[in-house]
Amino acid sequence: MGGSDRDAAAAHMLVPADTAQDVRERAAGVSAQVAVLPVGSYEQHGPYLPLATDTLVACAIAREIAAAHPVHLLPPVTVSCSHEHAAWPGTVSISSVTLHAVVRDIADSLRRSGVGALVLVNGHGGNYVLGNVVQEASARGEKLALFPAVEDWEAARERAGVVTSLLSDMHAGEIETSILLHVHPHLVRPGYESADHLADDRRHLLTAGMSAYTDSGVIGRPSLGSADKGKALLASLVDAFGATLALLTGDGPGPA
Prior knowledge:
Blueprint: H1 3-14, H2 20-28, E1 34-39, H3 53-68, E2 72-73, H4 96-112, E3 117-122, H5 129-139, E4 143-147, H6 150-160, H7 174-183, H8 205-208, H9 227-249
Parallel strand pairs: 1-2, 1-3, 3-4
Helix pairs in contact: 3-7, 3-9, 4-5, 6-9, 7-9
């Protein structure tokens, strides 16, 4: 596959190809419509993963969810709150207020078109405001959810045989490298095999930024990444999504 073909394939994986008729037919077969919105970022991921890594990961999770569950897959939010990565070139951020407003507007638009529930599939740990969006919406009686939860990632990590803990696997590490090796191997450049760097004590991260804890931009053990682990991680998250879907539609048991 040539470079232009690879770029086209990657774009197709980011932007759903549904028509209005596809959405109408899908809605006819469910009791309650649920949309899935990938939220990524555009920030440094070391010298071997692309700036769009978080978006690619969020889209991979959302795409697998849409293949397994009757949900409406949306195109991603590709720029978010990456201020802690500002020391590296290429990183672009918007304010938390802007991200909050964008998600609220999308949720409002969906409700006007008959889609009553929205799941935010978050690929960037720095998007703290998404939790507030869901909290506030739930208090108003609206149906929003944030996925995956830490517990979902922990279960996926164990199922996939990921060695690095969630604390240590902070950025461009074993999990992200594994998922990209599975879904976009041509985007992973050489160098991850020797880029391991750990910094478990990051208590001043929000004040000092990532550059206080890593020169390369990496915190984790990417050398342990593999395509097989990436595949298993996604499979586990797809299974875990069933509980979130049931909670929003009322078709199953409540939270564990």
